[in-house]
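Quick note —
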Amino acid sequence: MRRWLIYFSFLLFLGTQNAEAQRFHARLDAGLGGLIRHSKKFQFPSDEWTKSIDLSAQWFTHDRQGWAKYYNYPNVGAHLRYHTFGNRSILGGAVSLYPSITIPFSRNQSGRRWDFMYGSGLSYVFSPFDPLENPINTAIGTRWNTMTRIKFQYSFPVKAYRLGIFADFTHVSNGRMSTPNTGLNTAELGLSIWPSREERSFPDLSPTSFSIRKWSVEAAGVLAWTSQSNYPGPKFPVYVVKMAVTRSITPVQRLHLGVEWERNMERAHFQRGMLGVVDRREALQYATAYLLYLGDEFVIGPVSFGVVAGIYIQTRRETFPIYNQLFARYYFIQNERHSGAFLTVYLKSHLATAQYLGFGLGYQL
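Predicted structure written out below.
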């Protein structure tokens, strides 16, 4: 799983690098905040401030592919981040590597503007759960994890630099590939600084038109792994098949309406091993669920990001009926309407608690 995360993050970064006349600059973020105690399973105090230092390389995009103009010519970044979680002795800290996209959604002639940033990648946690050395850390069970960061920022020019004031949210989790895993969520306020030379004019490159198909259908298969909630639980596969109809609402945005078939073998093991059910068919029925979902996908050349909200429409187990997903895709075979075969990664959660991290392959007509 760790190798797949590294490869996929690399593909996402390369997929946004088809822009021409890019200008490189460095950016520094420093944040201060706190841990969000979203789970009753937390057995540790978190009375310290969380802290973060984030150094990134940013590229300001003007491209001939056409997609960048619909996002107001965003920045594409590669980040190195150090962050803590509010209890240095138990939770420690982490170092994260991740790509990002920063979209300006409001600006004026004086140079003041509002930005939205989304980034996701790989995080190395220094002090995960250990049954002997760190048994109180019930939030993170592995050193290697996924990391997602969302940032809203207001910035303005100050002489040769730009100064930004931001609020961000960071989520670290292993997608329940190993337990315990309630995940760690932090919220921070901070300052950002970078050279203002990115604001200099660029030549007109006359970008070509970019448009995704108005209506399309797609299917995908996803394989995930999940662990039992009690340590040290074994790992079990989760098989997922998704089918959806999509409708573009802008040249770079799709809505998805789909159904999902899911078979979680952890549930079958629980049914047979814990409840004493011998019949394999009944155990598999208990492990199978059907779901209905609505998604929103944002297309950035061969790369896309999206969010999903869904509901269980048929299941034999008691569970919270609403779920949510974050996903990213890389379209490695594209037609003239920017659909085709794609690789994908999904992080499925129930509210703030991760259920699984899965990788898949699909095709969109």
